[in-house]
Amino acid sequence: MKADNKKIWIRGQFVEVTNEGFSFVKRNMKTAWKKTANSRIELPDYCERSVFESIVNALIHRDYLINGSEVHIDIFED
Q1: I want to staple 12 with a disulfide (CB 3.0 to 4.6 A). Which of 6, 16, 25, 70 is the partner?
Q2: pTM greater than the 0.85 cutoff
Q3: Alpha-carbon span 50 to 72, nearest angstrom
Q4: Following DSSP, what letter does each residue of 27-71 receive, concatenated?
Q5: Are 46 and 24 in contact (CB under 8 A)?
């Protein structure tokens, strides 16, 4: 894994790549919060289950016959 600002290159086995990609999104997505009587509830920009499923689908449906094919995860400010 190599990081450059908010870019990250991940290599490894499927489970490792999936988990690292998911961790990257969790670290970099915005999270709002809502105050309750005794605590607060964190409200992430994206549903974690949807993010995980998107990463798994991207990796599974990637064309492994094309040498150098990659999966990119882009997070924009807006």
Answers
A1: 16
A2: no
A3: 16
A4: HHS-EEEEE-SSSEEEEESS-HHHHHHHHHHHHHSS-TTSTT---
A5: no
DSSP code, position 12: S
CA-CA distance, 63 to 58, in Å (whole number)? 10
Task: Write phi, then psi, for 36 (nearest 5 degrees).
Answer: -115, -175
pLDDT tens across the length of the chain (78 residues): 544 457 788 999 999 999 999 999 999 888 899 999 999 999 999 999 999 999 999 999 988 888 888 899 988 877
Residues 21-39 pLDDT 10s: 999 999 988 889 999 999 9
